[in-house]
DNA sequence: CTGAAAGCGCTAACAT
DNA sequence: ATGTTAGCGCTTTCAG
């Protein structure tokens, strides 16, 4: 900046003002132009770090997550990145592999970096306990809840999602709808089934406990559960699988039984794991876990004019229609 | 720091020295202890930004990628994050959605942030052209090549991967091995097939052009190609699919033909998209695209004592053995 | 309308 | 062995 001040014959402050486009300061247009020209010629590039120091604003937001190989982490980073970029904020990401020691270290490092907020996200919808440092900076939880329950939290609307999946099947004319659920200790299992029951009740369909099985969240489990369901005396004509992996297994069972999807049995999944859902044959209609939206929502919360008291935001799970529902 | 200097009755420099653990400066142990104690009591937390300004080292590394929903971006970020953390570096991530304008903007922003290096990674192994700013900072390409070819580049060893997949099948006793390849304009298609042919040749198996088909990189394509292959007069007993999605489709075709995997036909995939490979039934043996390793390798290159002239590093693609190969 | 000057929080010669 | 001092690159108040 000194260089360009000298080159232009003005002071550093003037340079600062015009480069920051401060129209509130009266500076003749010709001067402004000269400054800008000099800046360009000299290849001036502002030093964000120095600006941050002077302004006491880093424009940095941290995101700590138990990054694993599922696309979930990628999606939430993507959503957050997008929203952050729109606000001229940058994302500092640190993965913890779920190690609590690293979580604490991550928070400490981010605080030293003077991030303006931290997003703490997990793959699985679970209960977590944050390091004390989390209270020293705006922190929002994504896809998990705090034991103490005193953090702003972004959660997917699992129950509405379960209902949506079920309604989709009902609307297609199905009444005998089987559900293959996750193991009950997975937090998402309960609300997804609650949604299923609610949709059934709303449609005036009696709930039949024989029609719900647990598939252990794996393709193998989905296969077994679907086989059982299909072996019932009056088998379901539609299956709501509480995740796409189980739906993948269910596909196998249906096909093995000589049945067609969606001709003989319709299937709806949950999670929208693109790689599975989009490429299963036929492509799987499923309820999406809106990770990108949650990531963006977290940024919005963090960047809000005033970061308010703890609140819970429930993000809807949209239906992604593909080709596995029919009739 | 001033506070702790006053509290301890020493100067700021002394505080700086002990807090930075500079043993080369002679300071009596008791003084050191007092300083550290005061720091703790006052809840002192170093300001990384100020340190960066003073030291002219930000410890920041940028990563720009066309983040999409595949787990690839997540894996490379994970690998890079890991390696960066080990070196006390932080990752600034920006996604571009493949938009060239944003790529240029991303580089500019990262340079303003004074990152010490930039990783440019793409989902698909492709040819890219980087903005001019890329020359102003150590930059390494991951999973893509530059038109000009003058950047340090990290690439997977696709050819060795193709050979590895094929050898795996050969070693299991197969001689009639079909290959379902990607569309030829996908950069990975050529080397994967070259590897296939090389492995065949090495094993003394004649190459039979009727045994290789193109599956368009989709499950549907894999299904069609597998059906054709299985309909040959002397059908293959093993299938090497150039990606896991096509393997997924191939599974369907094999099962539909009343054949078993791996009893009647063995299958090997490529990419190791965990979500597919690990949950297919039977789980798919596949060659992994080592994104995390590539990310880590990129960090290593960037952090090397002296960032050398452009070089290409080829990272091996390891075999992930699961349950689809037999005989 | 423009410039001087005082920081932002920290490091590192250079003196003492 | 410890303190003084001069920055790092930029913003911003306050005079002029």
Tell me, briefly, the overall form of chain A: elongated
The total beta strand count of chain A reads: 12
Strand content of chain A: 15-25%
Following the backbone from N to C, one meets helices and strands of chain A in this order, namely: HHHHEHEHEEEHEHEHEHEHEHEE
* Strand order in space, largest sheet of chain A: 2-1-3-4-5-11
Structural class of chain A: alpha/beta
Q: In terms of quaternary structure, what is this?
A: homodimer
Query: What is the rounded Rg of chain A?
Result: 26 Å
The profile of the biggest β sheet of chain A is: 6 strands, parallel
Q: What do these coordinates show?
A:
- Two copies of one chain form a homodimer.
- With 327 residues, chain A is an alpha/beta fold.
- Chain A has twelve helices and twelve strands.
- The structure holds a DNA duplex (16 and 16 nucleotides).
State the gist of this model.
Chain A has 327 residues and is α/β, with parallel strands linked by helices. Chain A contains twelve helices and twelve strands.
Summarize the helices and strands and which ones pair or pack.
Two copies of one chain form a homodimer.
Chain A: H1 2-8, H2 12-19, H3 29-41, H4 48-55, E1 60-65, H5 71-86, E2 90-95, H6 100-112, E3 117-128, E4 139-146, E5 152-156, H7 158-171, E6 177-181, H8 189-202, E7 212-214, H9 219-230, E8 238-241, H10 244-256, E9 266-271, H11 274-277, E10 285-288, H12 291-303, E11 312-315, E12 319-320
Parallel strand pairs in A: 1-2, 1-3, 3-4, 4-5, 5-11, 6-7, 6-8, 8-9, 9-10
Antiparallel strand pairs in A: 10-12
Helix pairs in contact in A: 1-3, 5-12, 7-8, 9-10
Chain A binds a DNA duplex (16 and 16 nucleotides) through helix 2 and helix 4.
